[in-house]
Amino acid sequence: MLKKENDMLKNEAKMMKVGNLQSESVEVANGKEIDGCSVEVANGKETEGCSLVSNIVGGSFRFGALTPPFDGVNIGDDVSTCLTKWNITDKVTSFTLDNATYNNVMIVEIKRQLLRSGSNLLFDGQFFQIRCRCHIINLIVQAGLKLLDGVVDKIRAIGKHFEHSIPNKKQFYEVAQQIYHLDGNKRLRGDCCVRWNSTYLMLDRALYFRRPIDHVIEKDKDLMQHILSNEEWAKVSTIHGFLKTFYDITTEFSASKTPTSNVYFKGVWEIQCSLSEVENGEHEYLANMVKLMQKKFDKYWNRYNLLFSCACILDPRYKMKFVEYCFTTLYGELYAKEKTKEVLKTLTTLL
C-alpha cells in the first residue's frame, strides 16, 4: 500500500515538473500512520513528533520530519527548505491554516524566505495565508453554544446515565427496539467540548430516540430531574435544525476526494443567510446565540475571499450570476455591483 502510494506521488511530481520527492509514510484518517513517528494532531499539540504533510485528493502524504523546537520560525524554515528541495517555490499559491499564533509566525517566515530567493507571490502574497474554513465554522458555532441553556445539559446527562450503566443501557435499547421498533444498531451519543459537531450529532440521536427516552425516564426516579417537556423537545429540535446547516457545510468543505474551493463561496453565503434569518426570527434564545456567532463571522469572513469567489464563478453550476445574486440578497444591488466588479477584476488578473 505504502509503495503504491509513493509511486503514484512520484508520478504526479514528474507531471508537475517538480524535483525529487520522497514520501516517508502515509497518514491515515485517525491521526495514526502506517510507518514512521506520530505526527502533529488537532489543536496544534504534538504527540511524539511533527511532520510536513501535503494533502492530495485521495490521501495525505508525509514528506519529511520537522526538527524541534516546533515554533513558528523553525517550522517556517523547515517548510521553506522542503519547497526549495522540491523545486516548487514558484508554484506555491497559498497555505490553508487555522488561527494558531505559531502559524502566523510560520507564514511570515516562509514568505520572507520566498521573497528573498526571488520567488513571485500571487497578488504579492495577498492570498498566501488562507484560514481553514472548517476551523472558522468551529469558532463561529462554539461561540454560540456557550449560550445554550439547560436543555442541552439534560440531553447530555441522559446519555451519560445510560452509557455508564450496563443494566440501564440494556433496558433502554430493549425498549427502543421491542416497543418502538427503532434501529438496534444506533446508539445514543455523547459530545466533546472542543468538537461542536459532536453536540449536533448528540442532539440528532436524542431526537431519534425521543419516545424511548420519555418512556424510560418516566419510570426512573434517578432521571426525573432530566425529563424534557414538549416545549423543551421543540427547542432541541429547533437547535438541531439550526446546527444542521453548519454540519452539512462542514461536511462539504471537508471532502477529500472532490475539489472544495468552488463550494467555498456558496457555503459561506448559506451560513450568513442562516445567521441573518435566525437573528430576525421568533426564537429569542437562538437570536442571542447568533449575536455572538455573527461577531466571529464578521471577524473572519466579513470580506469573502476573492480567490474562492473566482473559483465559484468558474464552476459551471454557479458562474457570475450566482455571485451577483448572493451579494444582492445580502447587501442590496448597489453594494453588490461593487463587490461583483472586485471579484471580476481579480478573476481577470488571474487569467
UniProtKB/TrEMBL annotation:
<dbReference type="GO" id="GO:0003677">
    <property type="term" value="F:DNA binding"/>
</dbReference>
<dbReference type="InterPro" id="IPR052035">
    <property type="entry name" value="ZnF_BED_domain_contain"/>
</dbReference>
<protein>
    <recommendedName>
        <fullName>hAT-like transposase RNase-H fold domain-containing protein</fullName>
    </recommendedName>
</protein>
<dbReference type="InterPro" id="IPR025525">
    <property type="entry name" value="hAT-like_transposase_RNase-H"/>
</dbReference>
<keyword id="KW-0238">DNA-binding</keyword>
<dbReference type="Pfam" id="PF14372">
    <property type="entry name" value="hAT-like_RNase-H"/>
</dbReference>
<feature type="domain" description="hAT-like transposase RNase-H fold">
    <location>
        <begin position="254"/>
        <end position="350"/>
    </location>
</feature>
<dbReference type="InterPro" id="IPR012337">
    <property type="entry name" value="RNaseH-like_sf"/>
</dbReference>
